[in-house]
Amino acid sequence: MKKIIVQKYGGTSVENIKKMKNIVNRVIKLYDEGHSIVLVISAMGKTTDHLVEMAKAITENPDKRELDMLISTGEQVSVSLISIIFKSLGYDSISLTGYQAGIVTSSDYNKGKIADIDISKIKKYLQEKKIVIVAGFQGITENGDITTLGRGGSDTTAVALAAKLQSICEIYTDVDGIYAIDPKKYKNAQLLSEISYEEMMELSNLGAKVMEMRSVEMGKIFNVPIHIGNSVTGIIGTIIKDEDQLMEKKIITGLATEHNVAMVTISDVLYQSGDIYKIFNLLSEGEINIDMISQTAPIDGKINVSLSTPSLDVDSLKSVLKDYHTHKLYVDENMTKISVVGIGMIDQSGVASKLFNIFDNLGIHFKQVTTSEISISFIVNNEDSYSLIEEIAKAFNLSNN
Amino acid sequence: MKKIIVQKYGGTSVENIKKMKNIVNRVIKLYDEGHSIVLVISAMGKTTDHLVEMAKAITENPDKRELDMLISTGEQVSVSLISIIFKSLGYDSISLTGYQAGIVTSSDYNKGKIADIDISKIKKYLQEKKIVIVAGFQGITENGDITTLGRGGSDTTAVALAAKLQSICEIYTDVDGIYAIDPKKYKNAQLLSEISYEEMMELSNLGAKVMEMRSVEMGKIFNVPIHIGNSVTGIIGTIIKDEDQLMEKKIITGLATEHNVAMVTISDVLYQSGDIYKIFNLLSEGEINIDMISQTAPIDGKINVSLSTPSLDVDSLKSVLKDYHTHKLYVDENMTKISVVGIGMIDQSGVASKLFNIFDNLGIHFKQVTTSEISISFIVNNEDSYSLIEEIAKAFNLSNN
User: Fold this and answer.
1) How confident is the model over B225-276, as pLDDT tens digits?
2) Cβ of residue A19 closer than 8 Å to a chain B Cβ
3) In angstroms, rounded to a whole number, what is the distance separating the alpha carbons of residues B202 and B342?
4) Separation of alpha carbons B391 and B389, rounded Å
5) What per-residue confidence (pLDDT) applies to A326?
6) Is B54 on the interface with A (CB under 8 A)?
7) Residues of A in contact with B81 (CB under 8 A)
8) Taking the model in full, what pTM does it have?
């Protein structure tokens, strides 16, 4: 039976007319085979950045509603151009803004959440055999104001449409799929043919760039298989799907790294007082990004608190805490956070010990460790991270060879 | 009493952030005086042209619906940027697309006609003391598709909004107002402090560029006074108003010229047969622009038909008529059409004779003449046009001195 297919193409995939034509030609083949096609398109190349720059040239903090009004034009340009290409080739297509596609969001400008999609118009156009081209990343509030969905928003549009249309969702990007490790950091990284929603969410959260967490989460909630493929070749490398449908549960599926992290240790914090709260309150007011947090057991009523933060935030952190001089502050910069993620960890003990063994063999010490149900993260020196990635990849089959 | 003021700014008036800020500062003064302000804004500078070029790079004839979807983004960018400026200065403003402003049009893409405006949202925002900024040139069909209004469309948006809000309408442009003669063609041209809708329509129709005919017509129908001013200085030079409210009815209000016109005479056309029809049908199918038409009285059952056309169309015209060789074709290129317009002509005889006298004194012959109720147009050689403009300007007080 012929299917409805939702395909999403990101900004680099539509950055010029030539690339658009390449996509159009591939879609035409699918259409000619009888499939119903819904495309979700991002703004061309760096368009969104340029529009934001225009607004920032006026003021550092442009009004959020107006910023959404401004940047939503980027996708409107790309969907209309793609529809012009289809029409010029004699194919019946129609481009739709978020509003026209029935995408209703919360009124959180710059980070709208899809509240509902009135899918009736898209269904009608599909019945009329039109190729439907939806502007990604945008919607409209109940009041009729334009919103954008925030980072990775076009993915969310695509997954949400696929959920409503009960179709599969194909996300095309400039890589072949999801790799166990970022190929820029480890060239032999294995391309994963499948990964569970949970693992993908954890990897996204830990810094893997291909998919934003929100769209994966939506895929999980509505059980939409997400196919990740290369926009140039059209080849699907990875399918994100339900844990139960994985062919094989790997202990470790992927590894994410984050370089240039700083480890900050605050010593002699008073235990059982508002001291910890006060510190974190100051950090929060100062908009310091805090990631991993750990604390030592109290000795003589005092504890040490360690936290990791992007190196960029270290100066602000010092300045925020400068009025709080009862404590000593130790800062280690140039650290890397390495996280291993795998749904198999839930059932399988001994992952941590296998990892600790690798550290031991390499003579590398980690500065901090935290765990979640399906991940373990370490903070190590930047220079130690490369050999660690190599050894972890070998030990857990994350490599090609 | 404080008024609602609708102000329209064209593309050159908002071509960069500096010019936008200039406008915003002037509007703020009016707002601080207690007026309610609705701005209608065109796309920045050459934006629309650039967007059309992108579409034309795909195909010579881009789909019209999709083209409107594309080019309507131009105004959306400018209204949001202007609103960001107001907000950055602490003024409460809101930008609206054609759809959000309630502008419903016919579904004639690229030349939509405003069918109705649901003004309730704008009124609500004005009551909330917001400065309302509407994207010109665009609307939406009953079906929710985006349309543009064609040339001069932002003027039409402004006049239509002023009609609905029962307010005055100020059109700001890069000249001081309406001149009796295009100052580029006659430097001493008089700035007209007032002109009737009918005269303005006739002048627009005859090639005067400042206002498009449709918006003036709408002003006339809804009796909206249209103030024309300079976007840089803010000074209003001309008011377009009802004939009955003119301070003074001039015999001749203005003069419009069109250079590089060709006069084509087709001789020996059979009278009382389908001959004329066939010729004009061929010209129409060939999309030849025909302006003035005249024919001689029949002699021996034959007539001569003369018509004027842009010189650019002459080659196409010859090729269209080449299969129709029973007639002779005489072509005079490098001609100028001079038209004088004045509502006073209706009551005042002798305008034509005064004009003929000027021709006679200068020893200039015209090739063709046509008249309407409030205008007379002549075709003359390009080189004769300059002295004629000079003398007509003097004779009918169209000059500054």
Assistant:
1) 999 999 989 999 999 999 988 888 888 999 999 888 999 998 888 877 778 8
2) no
3) 9
4) 6
5) 67
6) yes
7) 54-55, 58, 66, 70
8) 0.86
Q: Are A324 and A278 in contact (CB under 8 A)?
A: yes
- Residue type (1 letter), A316: S
Q: Does A109 touch chain B (CB under 8 A)?
A: no
Q: What SS3 string covers chain B?
A: CCCEEEEEECHHHHCCHHHHHHHHHHHHHHHHCCCEEEEEECCCCCHHHHHHHHHHHHCCCCCHHHHHHHHHHHHHHHHHHHHHHHHHCCCCEEEECCCCCCEEECCCCCCCCEEEECCHHHHHHHHCCCEEEEECCEEECCCCCEEECCCCHHHHHHHHHHHHHCCEEEEEECCCCCECCCCCCCCCECECCEEEHHHHHHHHHCCCCCCCHHHHHHHHHHCCCEEEEECCCCCEEEEEECHHHCCCCCCCCEEEEEEEEEEEEEEEEECCCCHHHHHHHHHHHCCCCCCCEEECCCECCEEEEEEEEEHHHHHHHHHHCCCCCCCEEEEEEEEEEEEEECHHHHCCCCHHHHHHHHHHHHCCCCCEEEEECCEEEEEEEHHHHHHHHHHHHHHCCCECC
Q: CA–CA distance from A141 to each of A30, A86, B117, B227, B331 (Å)?
A: 34, 30, 21, 36, 61
A147, A86 Cβ separation under 8 angstroms? no
Nearest-angstrom CA–CA distance, B30 and B3: 10
Contact of A54 with chain B, judged by CB distance below 8 Å, is answered with yes
B66 in reach of chain A (CB within 8 A): yes
Beta strands across the sheet bearing B375-381: B293-295, B302-310, B254-270, B328-341, B375-381, B368-372
Q: What is the pLDDT of residues B370-383, one digit of tens each?
A: 888 889 999 999 99
From A127's Cα to the closest Cα of chain B, the distance in A is 17
Task: Classify burial at A312, counting beta carbons within 10 Å of its beta carbon; exposed 0-12, middle 13-18, buried 19 or more.
Answer: exposed
Site from B56, B71, B77 to mutate, A interface, most A CB atoms within 10 angstroms: B77
Instruction: Identify the closest residue of chain B to A92 by CA–CA distance.
Output: B63
Within the 228-257 window of chain B, which residues sit less than 8 Å (CB to CB) from chain A? none
Nearest chain A residue (CA) to B67: A80
Chain A / chain B CB contacts < 8 angstroms: 109
Residue in B with minimal Cα distance to A64: B84
Single out the residue of A98, A69, A96 nearest to residue B41, CA to CA: A69
What is the mean predicted confidence (pLDDT) over A358-368? Answer: 91
Interface touch B67/A80, C-beta < 8 Å: yes
Specify the DSSP class assigned to residue A210. S
- Contact between A84 and B95 using a beta-carbon 8 Å cutoff: no
Share of residues in chain A with pLDDT > 90 (%): 67
Rounded average pLDDT over B28-41: 97
Picking from B59, B80, B84, the nearest residue to A59 by CB comes out as: B84
Q: Which of A335, A342, A285, A286 is nearest to A306 (CA)?
A: A335
Whether B95 sits inside 8 A of A62 (CB atoms) is: no
Average pLDDT over residues B97-124: 96
Inter-chain touch B69–A63, beta carbons under 8 Å = no
Domains of chain A, each with CATH number or no CATH? 4-174 (3.40.1160.10), 255-395 (3.30.2130.10)
Q: How far apart are CA B278 and CA A102, in angstroms?
A: 51
Higher pLDDT, A30 or A372: A30
**Using one digit for the tens of pLDDT, what is the confidence trace for A176-209?**
999 999 888 889 999 999 999 999 998 887 777 7
